[in-house]
Amino acid sequence: MSENKKITIAHGDGVGPEIMAETLKILEAAGARLEYDEIKVGEELYLSGHATGIDDAAWASMRETGVLLKGPITTPFGGGYKSLNVTIRKTLGLFANVRPAVAYHPFVQTNFPSMDIVIVRENEEDLYAGIEHRQTANTYQCLKLLTRPGSERICRFAFEYAKANNRKKVTCMIKDNIMKFADGMFYEIFQEIAKDYPDIEADRMIVDIGAARVGARPLDYDVIVTPNLYGDIISDIAAEVTGSVGLGGSSNIGIDFGMFEAIHGSAPDIAGQGIANPSGLILGAVQMLVHIGQGDIAETVHNAWLKTLEDGIHTGDIYRDDISKKRVGTTEFGDAVVANLGEKPSQFKAVSYPTEESKRISISDATLSTSSKELIGVDIFINSIDLNGAQLGDKISALGLPLDIVSVASRGVMVYPNAQPEKYATDHYVVRFEGENVSSHDVVKLQSLILDADLDIIKTENLYNFDGERAYSKAQGQG
Ligand code: NAD
Questions:
Q1: How many CB atoms within 10 Å of residue 139?
Q2: Which atom of ligand 1 is nearest to the CA of 264?
Q3: Is the C-alpha dihedral spanning 325, 328, 332, 338 positive or negative?
Q4: Does 79 score more than 70 pLDDT?
Q5: Which pLDDT band holds residue 87 (cuts at 50, 70, 90)?
Q6: Residue 77: partners with Cβ closer than 8 Å, 6 or more residues away
Q7: Strand ranges across the sheet with 5-10
């Protein structure tokens, strides 16, 4: 028998302490070979002046143990507070968020009795980088950043996960008909990686119809891999379709660290009432046990949990008069799982897990690629109230600048030189310049001349060709 493994525990906010108490009670009764290092994170820390909700002692504990079992955390609104979850995922490089969504028919009401899908969500990038700016009185920006190494890692992980778990298909969900560069790159990498897994079907869905079908036809899916924001939305839809968001457990996996939690939040509306369903965190803990090589305990806990559902012992979120036997609170549910340890479900298929840690999916650190890059112009973002886009275009083209003005666009639509007659209520324009043999100094000179003409520059974005190909979008209406 292996030695005890030390893990870090954060009880969390809202219903966190209630569901964590039941989870730890079950782990102990099941004989999990664990020692705990408890840290304080979340609301208490935010309110004591830590804008990130976490302090140095907590980081030190996580770095020492490499494993965090975490209750949900409340992110206070406003006040510059940053989401603790996002901070932990990004700081520790937890690039993959794995969220299984499984139906428990006939014991939990769902329209799709055989639903069994897994959402593999990219966890560090996308709009969740949280890079936001107010640029003018009327315009706000949130940057969506996807990287090649980040996309490679998550797509590789999704196929490795499918292979290790005997799954047959991986569906990539993106919006590359609109975001041709960012989402287009994600899908291109998905296709490249899919070639290494000829036995696994590789499929693609545009995320809008793809997400709708997770709600309406979830049996079409097996494993879904997708960038961060889409993954967040799709996994909540999937969890609700299985019966309750309270049933979903999730793992956040990196090269050196793992964080395990329920997919739901701190549920402040029911906190302190003793009625929360602890299942999400229990199943998060099951994923943790598999991760640290205690598959034997994971199996015992998961099977006891399935048996409890089968026994009709249900918390309020999944209780139905026609299928449940007993409506219980959080503690009673935990007690029932403890009483069932060692039992197997008779109607659900009993689970079994590998016991060796080496069965963990291993993904090597992705490398940065290089490409030849040629500067061919610049987009200069201008805040203008007195002049509209066409007037701005006329004024700037009369300045005799070192680069040619190509267009003025407002919210991605060209308004100069060939504008449609419709008017747009905006104070935010992008003036595009291109030229031959452009240097960074030309770009700086250009800005200086524009400032001399009393125009208000709010940002610039260089335009490049990579490996000889244009690497920026054109405005709608630009030829
Ligand atoms: P939520 O998931 O907390 O609650 C949504 C709904 O589901 C509520 O009606 C709630 O009562 C119900 N619910 C959630 N968990 C349940 C459970 N275990 N049993 C029974 N019912 C349950 O989402 P929210 O209200 O949008 O967020 C509340 C807070 O949680 C916010 O501060 C948010 O930032 C945070 N949050 C944290 C995490 C995390 O720590 N991983 C995830 C999501 C949201």
A1: 16
A2: 2
A3: positive
A4: no
A5: confident
A6: none
A7: 34-39, 5-10, 67-70, 258-262, 249-253, 96-102, 116-122, 223-226, 169-174, 201-206
What SS3 state is found at 422?
coil
**3-class DSSP assignment, residue 6:** strand
* Alpha-carbon span 255 to 362, nearest angstrom: 8
Instruction: Provide the sign of the torsion angle of the four alpha carbons 239, 10, 278, 342, taken in this order.
Output: positive
> Contact, 236 vs 273, CB < 8 A?
no
* CA 270 to ligand 1 center in whole angstroms: 9
Residues linked to residue 292 through DSSP beta bridges, in sequence order: none
Cα 262 to ligand 1 centroid, rounded to whole Å? 9
pLDDT in tens, 101-132: 999 988 888 899 999 999 999 999 999 888 89
Atom of ligand 1 nearest to the CA of 281: 18
Q: How far apart are CA 434 and CA 181, in angstroms?
A: 20
Distances (CA, A) of 431 to 195, 334, 374: 41, 61, 20
Which protein residue has the closest C-alpha to ligand 1 atom 5?
267
Neighbours of 284 (CB within 10 A): 25
Tell me how far apart the alpha carbons of residues 399 and 397 are, in angstroms, rounded to a whole number.
Answer: 5
Residues in the chain, overall count: 479
The torsion angles phi and psi of 455, rounded to 5 degrees, stand at -100, 150
CB neighbour list of residue 292: distance below 8 Å, 6 or more residues apart: 5, 7, 67, 258, 357
Confidence class of residue 3 from pLDDT cuts 50, 70 and 90? confident
Residue pLDDT, tens place only, 406-423? 999 998 888 999 877 677
Burial class (CB in 10 A: 0-12, 13-18, 19+), 467: exposed
Reported as a pLDDT band with limits 50, 70 and 90, residue 43 is confident
From the CB of 276, is ligand 1 less than 6 Å away?
yes
Kindly report the number of other CB atoms within 10 A of residue 4's CB atom. 11
Binding site membership of 267 for ligand 1 (Cβ less than 6 Å): yes
* Of 89 and 72, the one with more pLDDT: 72
Task: From 120, 116, 224, select the one nearest 170 (Cα to Cα).
Answer: 224
Packing angle of the helix pair 16-29, 279-291 (nearest 10 deg): 50
Q: Is the pLDDT of residue 358 over 70?
A: no
- At 311 the pLDDT is 95
Distance CA 60, CA 258 (A): 15
What is the three-class DSSP state of 251?
strand
**What does the block give as tokens for 361?**
């999916």
Residue nearest (by alpha carbon) to ligand 1 atom 23: 265
